Amino acid sequence: MPAIESNAYAKLNLTLDVLGRRPDGYHDMCMVMQTVSLCDHLLLEYGTGMPVQVRSNLEYLPTGGSNLAAAAALRLCEAIGRECGVSIAIQKGIPVCAGLAGGSADAAAVLRGLNQLLSLGLSWERLAEIGQRVGSDVPYCVLGGTALAEGRGETLTPLNSLPSCWVVLCKPNFSISTPELFGRLDSVHIRCRPDTAGVLAALDHGDLMGVAQRMYNVFEDVLPERRGAEVAEIKNTLIQQGALGASMSGTGPTVFGLFDQRSQAGAAFRILRESYRETYLAETIGQVL
């Protein structure tokens, strides 16, 4: 039975702006995204003669069609007109419900893995098109690297790579409702927005500091007060330990900082790990195709 291993890499939002609500109920977004080395590990087997099967080291994760990895396998098999006898084993390394696109990354890894395993030769654009039917972050996760994501997230423009750096990620011990945050955002006037143009210019010049100092996420302004205070405290710890900049990823709650010194990143990791079990040390990486 042919099999392949495929890594699913976490994403960060270097910037996140919400431009408005669309007639279809979704929101138009403008985001600069970045892949980091924190990942899930997937083992894909094809030709099982069974419907799509998913298993994971986390017992509470869904194993049916609501699992994005399973949905991606089904959508790909539909697109190429083949039976979908696929077994997917997921070893989770990305924290769940963290604003890091863990489920979407798994779906993208399935698309890339099956494309290679079955020698389909599909372009990343075609894989992203299939992935769009699974979730808004899946097209970006197919591509990876540094990219501008617009629309619902499916309109991608590859960018000059963020200069290599260390990343400390810290997920606080609470969850955030994405629909609730979008509802809060819809009910207020957004006072501050990311300097997306400035970030793009900094990327063009290979200016890590210029990017880090312009990182911003509009959802930080609509967090519940107590949650917002904790996010701000983690950001402050990262900055005090030498981060060039810090922000929240997605709708949170994970906070991350960018470091140009491994020693400073390591120190920040150790300090935050004392209070937050889900703290990680990673590196930025380029496109994953």
Structure description:
This protein is α+β, with helices and mostly antiparallel strands and 289 residues long. It contains nine helices and eleven strands. The longest helix has 16 residues, at 102-117. The chain starts with a strand and ends with a strand.
How is the topology of this model organized?
Blueprint: E1 3-21, E2 27-46, E3 53-56, H1 68-80, E4 86-91, H2 102-117, H3 124-132, H4 138-143, E5 146-151, E6 155-158, E7 166-170, H5 178-186, H6 196-204, H7 208-212, E8 216-217, H8 225-240, E9 245-248, E10 255-259, H9 262-273, E11 279-285
Parallel strand pairs: 1-8, 3-4
Antiparallel strand pairs: 1-2, 2-4, 2-5, 2-11, 5-6, 7-10, 7-11, 9-10
Helix pairs in contact: 1-2, 2-3
What is the structure about, briefly put?
By secondary structure, the chain is of the alpha+beta class. Helices cover 33% and strands 28% of the residues.
Q: Give the number of DSSP strands.
A: 11
Q: Considering DSSP H and I runs of 4 or more, what fraction of the residues is helical?
A: 25-40%
Largest sheet: 11 strands, mixed
Q: What is the oligomeric state here?
A: single chain
Share in β-strands: 25-35%
What characteristic shape results from the CA principal axes?
globular
State the end-to-end distance.
24 Å
What labels describe this entry?
33% helix; 11 strands; alpha+beta; 289 residues
